Amino acid sequence: MAEQDMQQCIDRAERVLYKIYNRFPVVFDHGQGVYLYDTNGREYLDFGAGIAVMGLGYGCEELNRAMKEQIDKLCHTSNLFYTVPAVEAGEKLLEASGMDKVFFTNSGTEAVEGALKVAKRYAYNKGLAPDYEIIAMEHSFHGRSLGALSVTGNDHYQEPFAPLIPGIRFARFNDLDSVKAVWSEKTCAVLMETIQGEGGIYPATEEFLNGVRRLCDDHDALLLLDEIQCGMGRSGSMFAWQQYGVKPDVMMVAKALGNGIPIGAFLASGKAASAMAPGDHGTTYGGNPFACAAASKVLDLFSSRKIVEHVQKVGAYLWDKLEEFTAAHPCVQAHRGRGLIQGLEFADPVGPLVECALLEEKLVLISAGTKVIRFVPPLVIDPADVDEMIRRLERCVADSSR
Ligand SMILES: *Cc1c(COP(=O)(O)O)cnc(C)c1O
What we know:
It is a single chain. This protein is α/β, with parallel strands linked by helices and 402 residues long. The protein has helices at 3-16, 49-52, 61-73, 84-97, 108-125, 146-150, 155-158, 176-182, 206-219, 270-273, 289-304, 307-328, 351-359, 383-400; strands at residues 28-32, 35-38, 43-46, 101-105, 133-137, 168-171, 187-193, 195-196, 202-203, 222-226, 250-253, 264-268, 332-338, 341-346, 363-364, 366-368, 372-375. The protein has a domain at 62-304: Type I PLP-dependent aspartate aminotransferase-like (Major domain) (Aspartate Aminotransferase, domain 2). Helices cover 40% and strands 18% of the residues. The strands form four sheets. The chain has a seven-stranded mixed sheet with strand order 4-12-11-10-7-5-6, sandwiched between helices. Strands 1-2-3-15 form a four-stranded mixed sheet. The radius of gyration is 21 Å and the shape is globular. 47% of the residues are buried. The structure holds pyridoxal-5'-phosphate. Pyridoxal-5'-phosphate (PLP) binds at residues 107-109, 112, 141-143, 193, 197, 226, 228-229, 254-255.
């Protein structure tokens, strides 16, 4: 495809697609491994993974084969019936997490919606007055539906859509006293990301997560952990909370679970799972055999390819390289994260840097908020990819400081 055709595609897109995103002027055509290719055949090193989705990278043959086989068998039946892929994907998720029950959704947002309903139903069953409260965190991100938006601590996202669901109190992440300050006898659950993603890559501290767990235990409230971005091996354990010695009552996954096929899930402990009864929730597509065949194969490949161990090694390598980068560049103010979810906070907005990386250096980077570059590459990157990313990033930073 010629350059002109790429522009033509962009013009057509702008005519038909709802103007909700400001997109970069690149039309991607295919991917392989950790590389994306535009319609002109130019190659891009991808450190964004479609927003932490493509854990196994692009063009994963074994996964594609499993999906093609399922397409030829059966894609959908509705949840009025049983299918084998849903059972298999469910068993593997429970095995990986130690949770007791799983409900499949089509997205992360829907997983959050489900978790909120579990929390509400749990409180309702206890006979709490209907004005019970859920504590969520400032600078969190849980999705864009009205329920998920209600617990997303970002005024800019919330304000135009107010009033949202009532009874949400916000506390400061990693500040246990601020949680205690908004706690009341109406509190029925606390919701947080184990590592805040969109908010700028902030891992929960040991003290905070353990402290919140204790508060929930003391008051029979549910701890809901959003692992949609930091889960699925990205933090260096299958789920980030597994590094803390705590366990949630409900957890949410999505993003890397389907390696690009839309699927999410909320998983509950027996206690939380018993809160909902048949008829309390539902979905037409959620858990369909096609999406579940994908998730099931993704979970197999995580085991057979030892993805978690790989993330620990290459994540440590990325950490060292970004530490060196931070030391060498005064424009970088902080470096945070774990495994392959790391962030660099810059003194200035990173928009121009992200654009330079993409257009000049053919390096896909994504931001988190205005001043943080977030590094959430495919989990299958190797140290040579990290070195190449750093070289390209160096050139952009040199350019922008000229
Ligand atoms: C992306 C994300 C969501 C929303 O997931 P969608 O699949 O976009 O609906 C929720 N929580 C976190 C932490 C996320 O990163």
